[in-house]
Write a structure and sequence with these properties.
151 residues, mainly alpha, Glycerol uptake facilitator protein, 5 helices, 63% helix
Length: 151
């Protein structure tokens, strides 16, 4: 039996985070893309948010995260998010060296997942982009400019 080395452990963690992040976001992005495909029906209210689509997307993200964390938590910790990794560094649960290895792997995994979904879903549009709903302020209207000027 081979002895364990820190370099080998870091490599296994890096590959686990890359593959885990890829799988998590691949299934989540594919579900969001599928939910946002036009189905030929017109909504009763224009610009209305379809809550069934939002629920489907939220459940797909949650199920994808839960399944992939369950599979990869013993391999790499199942963080799949640079913000989570940074938080674990701040509370000293993960070493800064390991974080410097995991964060690029997470970013690459997420980018590869987005590219893979873009490649397999037909059409030119990416339909899993985030946008504000109707009636939600974006901070760029006249009222927000006036409030910024007062401070």
């Amino acid at each position: 039996m081979a002895l364990r080395s820190p370099a080998r452990d870091y490599l296994v963690s890096m590959i686990g985070e890359l593959v885990g992040t890829f799988l998590f976001l691949f299934f989540a992005f594919a579900a969001a893309q599928t939910a946002n495909q036009p189905n030929g029906t017109k909504p009763l209210t224009p610009n209305a948010t379809d809550t069934s689509k939002l629920l489907y997307i939220a459940l797909a993200f949650g199920a994808s995260l839960a399944a992939n964390v369950w599979v990869f938590f013993r391999v790499s910790g199942g963080q799949f998010n640079p913000a989570v990794t940074l938080a674990l560094v701040l509370i000293r649960a993960v070493s800064p060296t390991k974080a410097l290895i995991l964060i690029p792997a997470q970013l690459v995994g997420g980018s590869l997942a987005a590219a893979a979904v873009k490649g397999i879903i037909p059409g030119d549009d990416i339909l899993f982009a985030v946008s504000l709903g109707p009636g939600v302020a974006n901070g760029k209207n006249e009222q927000s400019r006036k409030s910024k000027e007062t401070y």
